[in-house]
Amino acid sequence: MKPCDLIVVGCSWGGLEALRGILGPLPDTYEIPVVAAQHRSPQAVPGHMASALEARISLPVREVEDKDTIRPGHVYIAPPDYHLLIEPGSFALSVDEKVQYSRPSIDVLFESAADAYRERLVAVILTGANKDGAAGFARVKKRGGTTIAQDPSTAERSQMPQAAIDTGAADMVLSLEEISDVLLRLSAVGASEGAGHVG
Known about the structure:
single chain; alpha/beta; 7-stranded parallel β-sheet; two-stranded antiparallel ribbon; 9 strands
């Protein structure tokens, strides 16, 4: 298994519970930063999802603000009605047009992360009811990153992981418990010095 500097996760319908499923077993000493984009209403209460997730996992969770630095050991959530882009070691927010009817778009997150982190990126697609994330998933694979899709038979909504699998770019198709196990093994492999940053 390749060393990893960043994990990106995309989800939609049923995503909060799925995120709890994969992140709940991670210890508070976990170092690899995790960035998640979930489809939400533009009118969603800022910070609510981060608070709900943080109450159920050991790692600190925050909703991203523009130009935030990516820090080890943190979980970052895309704010409602903004695209979340990854730059080497930091975030940028955008109000560009919706992609796949969504803002935040998982494709935008994954594609920008793939270009910034290449082979040191892991991308995970979880439950959801549309095809957002499939193109970004394929970009991650093309750039040398590792791609994981939730087993559609275990997802609350199977369309999103199935669309990612249908690209032919999935390295692994796993249950939530198995995805969590992989994330734990990634930590054992060890992120590069200065996790969350590209040197």
